Amino acid sequence: MNGGVDWALSEEVVDLTRGPSGLGFNIVGGTDQKYVANDSGIYVSRIKEDGAAALDGRLQEGDKILAINDRDLKNLLHKDAVELFRNAGYNVSLKVQHRLQPQNGAAGHRGDGEPGGIPLAVILVPVLAIAVAAVWAFLRYRQRM
Q1: Are 109 and 116 in contact (CB under 8 A)?
Q2: Whole-structure pTM over 0.85, yes or no?
Q3: What is the distance between the alpha carbons of residues 86 and 77, in angstroms, rounded to a whole number?
């Protein structure tokens, strides 16, 4: 999931109120179903449209859920984590770890399925320098004729 890129991490507490479709997101992970290599954490796999999480807007797909109602989610089987979410009550407090894309990180692949691309300046500066040099050479050539 990290694609070799060093991601900045931030933590946030997200309080949700259970709606008609529950909390409005799906989870993956656990000690028996690792979503990320060498990490048995619980991750958000999908945000349901118009669900509590989508309406709140802070929880994102790929976020790691560290705790639910102050209960640490480390070293749990997937089914045990699901049971904690089902029995969490009407008002639920999630401690969440977000991945933030590095601002000055390496170009190329971002690691989340989308290409990072090459910064525009890396392409434009040399192209403009060559264009200026070509115009200068052309004008010098015309003056000598």
Answers
A1: yes
A2: no
A3: 15
Cα 44 to Cα 29: distance, rounded to the nearest angstrom: 9
Looking at this protein, which amino acid is placed at residue 77?
Answer: L
Give pLDDT tens digits for 100-138.
766 555 444 444 444 556 677 777 778 888 888 888 888
Q: Would you report the helix, strand and coil content of the chain in percent, each value rounded to 5?
A: 25, 30, 40
Instruction: With CA atoms as reference, report the closest residue to 1 among 119, 141, 135, 111.
Output: 111
119: which 2 tokens? 């910064």
CA dist 8 and 5 (Å) reads 10
